[in-house]
Amino acid sequence: MASYVVMEPPADGLGAMPEQTRLIRDGFSWLAFLVSPLWLLWHRLWFAALVAFIAMGVLTAVGERPGFELAGAVLTLLVGLYFGLEGQGLRIAKLRRSGWTEQGVIEAADLPDAETRYACGLGPAEAPAEERHAIVPAPDRARPVQTGMALGLSHHPGRA
After folding, report:
1. Cβ of 51: how many Cβ atoms within 10 Å?
2. Residue 19's pLDDT band (boundaries 50, 70, 90)?
3. Cα–Cα distances in angstroms (integers) from residue 8 to residues 21, 32, 92, 108, 124, in the given order
4. What is the dihedral of CA 8, 14, 19, 22, to 10 degrees?
5. What is the CA 148 to chain-centroid distance, rounded?
6. From CA 114, how far away is CA 106, in angstroms rounded?
7. Banded model confidence at residue 44, pLDDT cuts 50, 70, 90
8. Could you give the CA distance from residue 7 to residue 111 in angstroms, rounded to a whole number?
9. Alpha helix (H) residue ranges in the chain
10. Partners of 22 in beta bridges
11. What is the per-residue burial (b if ≥16 Cβ within 10 Å, else e) of 69-91?
12. 123 near 117, Cβ under 8 Å?
């Protein structure tokens, strides 16, 4: 099953409309791997597309030099692999910067199934209280404050 991140638009005076909510698959993107700059332009990630164009242009020039053919090909492949792995994360980060809020994650087989789960309210839900673990212990379980004279780095009551 795939994970889909639920992103809701910023609330304006009328409130957020459910039709504007975006479900972004969190995982590898084959199109971003194969045609990174075009995929980035399609999703309006202008700066990342510019970086991809420049990086791939420089690596192509490096690959044309005698003796650097393999290095240029491998590095170009790594640039594509980076955008294939991190492309969806770049989309989510762009939406966050635009004021969108992440409402949670839905696990579904495909996008229509994720949309159905979100529409029916089966999507991101609060974890039950019994599953939550406290990070900070309760204050009533803390050790009492030790008063008195202390010598050295630690306090040992009754020792001088």
Report:
1. 16
2. confident
3. 5, 23, 11, 18, 12
4. -20
5. 50
6. 6
7. very high
8. 14
9. 30-34, 36-42, 46-63, 69-97, 111-119
10. 7
11. eeebeebbeebbeebbeebbebb
12. yes
Closest Cα partner for 81 from 52, 47, 46? 52
| Residue showing tokens 């030790």 | 146
Amino acid identity at 85? L
- Taking phi over 0 as left and psi of -120 to 50 as alpha, with beta for the rest, 91 belongs to alpha
Q: Is the pLDDT of residue 59 over 80?
A: yes
Residues 103, 82: Cα–Cα separation, whole Å: 26
Q: Interior CA angle at 139 toward 133 and 142, to 5°?
A: 100
Give the pTM.
0.68
- Cα angle at 75 between 82 and 41, to 5 degrees? 45
Q: DSSP assignment of 83-115, as one string?
A: HHHHHHHHHHHHHHHTT-EEEEEEEESSHHHHH
